[in-house]
Hints:
Pfam families: Sulfotransfer_3. The chain is α/β, with parallel strands linked by helices. It contains 20 helices and five strands.
Amino acid sequence: MSMADLLAPETMLAASTARTGLSDFGDPGFREGFDRLLSDIRALDLPEAFAQATAFRIGQFLDARALAVDGLRRHGEVLATPVRRPLIIAGLVRSGTTALHQLLSLDPQFQGPEHWLTVAPKPRPPRDRWQDDPHYRAVADSIAAFVASAPEMLDDHMMSADGIEESLFILATGFASNMWPSMWPVPRYDLWYRDRDDRDSYRWLADVLRLIGKGDDRRWLLKNPTDLFSLGEVLDVFPDAMIVQTHRDPVEAMPSICNLILAAQRVFSGDRADPVAIGGREAEMWAVALDRAERVRAGSANRFFDIEFRDFTRDQLGTVKRLYDHFGLTLDASTEAAMQAWLDAHPRRAAVAGPRYRPEDFGLTADGLRERFADYRARRGYA
């Protein structure tokens, strides 16, 4: 089979059905993004090894979609379950969202989508049965292989099969997601994605959460930096959400963001990954996201809690306590102790002399970033 045929939509769908035994992928509206994505990827003319890795990765998300559709059919009663007042972490990538997410996930009053259940959505089984679940074992093996090919992703994302995961992984099964331009250079797909209304994506997310959390009435803890880009749609679907927005000077964060995207694209695209194209795309994407979020916030009655990266890194547990106070949540002594133990076991890496990555590595300049993010930097006092 040619690489173009391997990545053809009907081939990919048939392969997913062969793996899962499921042929129902739900609302056919997902095909618009799916077909556009594969068209852009085929145009890259990837070498065989990268095309195979691409087919495997996208196939995982097709399988997850089919499993979710099947689960929602089997457990249709969950669709009536309200998703009440979720706590949602959003913020510029590299602004402390992952560490904050990990800390809050230690609180048993929250539930979050574990990584393996975003890959194989189903009602969450009892924890002591996970090791016997073939889906769990397959996901753990897949993560081990991915981290071996891009070890920096483990440091940056703290990936594990049983750890809490970003809602981005569920949103990606709708095939209208920022995940895909982060893994392949797909400019036509990207333009389509950034110009669409995301309400259907977040309604799908809510339904998959209902499936995973069947019988569990705890508050949802969610995290996805790209929620800033679609914050209006997020609040339409989750109108009582508590939003935590993390902040960091984009002039500092952007080179690190670009390096993270470059590492991911190199895994699946090899030398098709272009640092300069990544720099231009990420700077534009996040400037738009921050401006959109500000406009939504200005017209919203929701309570937001803002966290400055420098404040969080200086006093992580104190920041968490202020967050709980702001939203009227209770932090009990045992959870606080667990959070402190996690912080002791995961000390923040000491800064090396000078920046690890430079804007120039990605076709950017510090002055250009200051200009691009001028409004946001002025609002946050970075200017």
